Amino acid sequence: MTTSQPSPALVDSGDPLALERQVCFALSVAARNVVGVYRPVLEPLGLTHPQYLVMLALWQHGQLSVKELSGLLQLDPGTLSPLLKRLEAAGLLRRERNPADQRNLALALTERGRALRARAEEIPVGIVERLGMPVEQLTALHEALTQVIAASQEALAAPGTAAGAPSGVA
């Protein structure tokens, strides 16, 4: 992992295709690096980052259907299936047919899964410390990313529309 900053000549070159000017590149690198910061914090809990997201949703919402969880995490149910199987094998959740609708799987935390929450409560503060960024800056970033998510969802929902980006930022 390199920590060098892009050359000012590249960023200021005016080239709309300069790698360092691409929002998609910055988001991709930031996501990979932040997940990397979580990795050693989650290992003692026996969780990967995607599994942690599943557990967060279940700790917050309680029992969920796979469809509901898929919507919350914005992941395809086919992507969730192997994660859920591993969490079930680890004894953290149960997958059961929903009594109200046998076609749907209901996900529920086990006692072990509920107990893991107490250990996980230390994670957010630990991540903030590891990043070494002010909470206010991380909060502002979260708000900006939430806006990017909403804008990208709108763009995906309206295929064929040409949304113009401001010059030099893509």
From TrEMBL:
Listed GO CC annotations: cytoplasm
Pfam family, one: MarR
Location within or outside the cell: Cytoplasm
InterPro entries in the cross-refs: ArsR-like_HTH, HTH_MarR-typ, MarR/SlyA-like, Tscrpt_reg_MarR-type_CS, WH-like_DNA-bd_sf, WH_DNA-bd_sf
Positions of the HTH marR-type domain: 20-150
Main location, first listed in the record: cytoplasm
Keywords: DNA-binding, Transcription, Transcription regulation
GO BP, sorted A to Z: response to stress
PROSITE patterns according to UniProt: HTH_MARR_1, HTH_MARR_2
MF terms (GO), sorted A to Z: DNA binding; DNA-binding transcription factor activity
Top-level taxon of the source organism: Bacteria
Name of the featured protein: Transcriptional regulator, MarR family
